[in-house]
Amino acid sequence: MDTEMYCYTPAGERKLLPAEKVFDDWLDPETSAIACVDMHRSHVGDDPDMPVPAPRATERVDAHNAFHAAAREVGVPVIMVQHWQRHGGTDDIKSHVVEGGTNWRHLEKIYMNLDPKNMDELGWEGTKWVDLMVEEDPRDLYVRTKKRLSSFYPTDLEFLLRQMGVANLIIDGTLTDCCVLNTAFDAANRDFRVVVPRDVAAGMSEEMEGAAEKVIANHLGLIVDAPAVLREWYARKGVEVPPALAEAETMDDVTAVKA
Q: In this predicted structure, what is the pLDDT of residue 13?
C-alpha cells in the first residue's frame, strides 16, 4: 500500500491494514468499482409521501456526490443499483409466490407505521420514486432490475463486474443494515472483496448502522473512511490529492471545505 491505510474492527477501533498482498490487492483502484445502492426518491429527499424514508441517507447525499466524483477522477467506475419493480406490483405485493409482499413489508407493520399506498409503490417503474437523488455522470453504469434486498438478485451485477475485471466492490448507498448488508453478503459469497465506507453508506438509524458495520467487519469486508480509500487510490495512480481531501477524516470534512 502507498499510504497508511486503516480499517475499523468490529469493536469500532481503528487498525492499520497489515502489509500483506491480499490487502494491497483489496485497495487496488484498477480492479475496483463502486455500487451505489438505492439512492432514489423512494428513500431519499424531502417528499412527505416518500415510501420508506431514510433520513440518514438524505443527510449523506453530498458525501455520496463528493466520494463518487473523486473516484471517477482516478478511473474507479460508479454503478447505480436500483430497486426497480414493474408498475402494479407483479414482482412483490401481487406476487403469487409471496402473499401480500416480501417479508420486510409485513415486518414493517409491527414497528414503522408507514403509509401503505406509498410503501406499495416503492421502486415502481414509471413513478417519481425511481428518480436518483445523487449526481450522475456519463461514465456511470446502471443496474435496474433489483427486486429484493441484494443488489445481486435478480440482476446482472455479477455479470457486469466480471466483464469489467472487478475484484473489489465498494458498496455505499442505503440502507447499511438492509440492502448494503445483503449486497455485502452476496458479494463476499461470490469472492468479491468488500469495502464499505462508513461515512457514506447510511443506515436506518445510528444503532442499526453500527450493528451492520460490525457484521461486515467481522465476516465480509473492510469498514473504512472514504477519504482514506481515496488517498490510497490517488497515490496508486500518481495523481495529486485535492487539498480538501488531503487531511479529511470523513467525506463530511470534504464537503464542508467545498461549502
A: 97
User: Mutual orientation of helices 251-258 and 226-237 as an angle, nearest 10°?
Assistant: 80
Taking alpha carbons only, the member of 51, 57, 9, 70 closest to residue 233 is 70
C-beta neighbour count of 256 within 10 angstroms: 12
Domain containing 49: what range?
6-86+132-258
- DSSP states of 133-146: -S---TT-EEEEEE
> In this predicted model, what pLDDT tens digit does every residue of 112-127 receive, in sequence order?
877 777 889 999 999 9
Write out the three cell numbers for 132: 436518483
- Sheet of strand 78-83, all strands in order from the earlier edge strand to the far edge: 14-16, 6-8, 221-224, 193-197, 168-173, 32-37, 78-83, 141-146
110 part of a folded domain: no
- How high does pLDDT run on average in the chain? 96
Query: Using CA atoms, how far apart are residues 82 and 92, in angstroms rounded to an integer?
Result: 15
CATH of the domain at 60: 3.40.50.850
